[in-house]
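Inverse folding, one chain.
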């Protein structure tokens, strides 16, 4: 029996993957945080070296914030419930055949971005220990600093995006941006070859006829064993949503497409909407308001047939048995909502129904949750009382420091990849 299985967003967390930040962040340069640059004629164009971060980060502070997040998760799951992506990469690179295949795919990806993997670099990566090789693939350099790959992999921090567990299957995503192609290659190897996923059905959206499919885990929300939401926007396209919907159809799972505004602030569905428990969800208000002051709305559609649905997200969920109270990010203040959504105020992660993680800097959003009966707890308080606080119906928000973590435009849900959740009662 596999221990992998996720049938909701809020069932009690049993196992999870994260990626502790490392030396890859020390290689991110100012040119990597500019989405656009000016060419020799002074015209703006896409920056080919953009790595999706908005700012340079302090790695030691970033690490401490991330460590606190996963200390809370370990308190909820037990130490054996947390797996680090760096270790999983090293595990699969033990197999010479897997390593050869991974390096070949990475070499091809480097060529596509105008780089390359030299003969000497491939020889070093082939001969290095599994842990050395894994670290070099993450950082992009050898331990002595010699550059092997064009870019580091800072976005591996957001473990959510390249894999997802949906029901009893692991879904291999297909990242849209070149900065995440290497993440996708490594994640595919983990899904196909790591013992964690032994015997688990693999759904790979890059296989089959959907050759143009693009999809990331931040756009995939498992509402129930019969309903999955997929956001379609700047990171996931219609072909990706359709590929996942077709793969889940034989299991009787309905996939509801959610058309997102093509804005940086709405990079994934989970930056606008996350489930808190069976009764409530956290939402960025303008995307569900009839007359939005900032002019954006979520539109629903059937990814397979392409038919647009007339009802809004809240009504569509209610019609499918999920009558959720929408708690507003920003607590009803338009300016606060926009500011706090930018720092992941709508991106909550559930440890259990009604026990959620959120950045403490989003104070108006915490106030909105507090009005709905959620206590505000500290990470230290939760760690000390986890066994007690996870029982019963108590609702709480564990308020995390996220001052460096939020610079990468990702919240607690973005940083976590659930492998197993207990079924909801």
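Residues assigned per position:
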């Amino acid at each position: 029996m596999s221990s992998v299985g996720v049938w909701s967003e809020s069932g009690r967390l049993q196992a999870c993957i994260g990626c502790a930040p490392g030396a890859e962040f020390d290689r991110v340069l100012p040119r990597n945080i500019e989405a656009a640059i000016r060419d020799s004629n002074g015209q703006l164009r896409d920056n080919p070296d953009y790595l999706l971060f908005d700012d340079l980060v302090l790695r030691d502070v970033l690490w401490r914030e991330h460590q606190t997040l996963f200390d809370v998760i370990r308190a909820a799951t037990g130490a054996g419930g947390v797996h680090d992506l760096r270790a999983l990469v090293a595990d699969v690179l033990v197999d010479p055949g897997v390593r050869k295949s991974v390096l070949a795919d990475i070499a091809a990806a480097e060529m596509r971005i105008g780089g390359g993997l030299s003969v000497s670099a491939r020889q070093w990566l082939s001969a290095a220990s599994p842990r050395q090789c894994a670290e070099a693939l993450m950082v992009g350099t050898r331990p002595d600093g010699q550059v092997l790959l064009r870019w580091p992999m800072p976005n591996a921090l957001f473990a959510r995006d390249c894999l997802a567990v949906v029901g009893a299957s692991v879904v291999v995503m297909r990242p849209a941006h070149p900065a995440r192609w290497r993440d996708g290659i490594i994640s595919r190897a983990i899904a196909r070859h790591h013992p964690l996923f032994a015997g688990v059905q693999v759904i790979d959206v890059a296989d089959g006829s959907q050759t143009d499919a693009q999809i990331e885990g931040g756009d995939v929300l498992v509402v129930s064993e019969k309903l999955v939401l997929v956001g379609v926007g700047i990171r996931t396209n219609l072909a990706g949503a359709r590929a996942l919907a077709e793969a889940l159809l034989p299991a009787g799972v309905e996939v509801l497409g959610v058309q997102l505004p093509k804005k940086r602030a709405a990079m994934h569905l989970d930056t606008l909407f996350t489930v808190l428990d069976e009764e409530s969800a956290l939402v960025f208000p303008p995307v569900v308001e009839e007359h939005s002051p900032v002019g954006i709305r979520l539109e629903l559609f059937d990814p397979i047939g392409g038919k647009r649905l007339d009802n809004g997200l809240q009504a569509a969920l209610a019609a499918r048995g999920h009558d959720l109270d929408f708690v507003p990010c920003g607590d009803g203040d338009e300016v606060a909502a926009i500011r706090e959504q930018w720092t992941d105020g709508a991106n909550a992660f559930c440890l259990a129904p009604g026990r959620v993680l959120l950045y403490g800097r989003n104070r108006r959003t915490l106030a909105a949750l507090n009005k709905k009966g959620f206590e505000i707890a500290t990470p230290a308080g939760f760690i000390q009382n986890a066994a007690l606080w996870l029982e019963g119906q108590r609702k709480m928000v564990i308020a995390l420091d996220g001052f460096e973590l939020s610079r990468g435009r990702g919240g607690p849900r973005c940083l976590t990849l659930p492998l197993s959740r207990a079924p909801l009662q």
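The chain has a mean pLDDT of 93. The longest strand covers residues 13-18.
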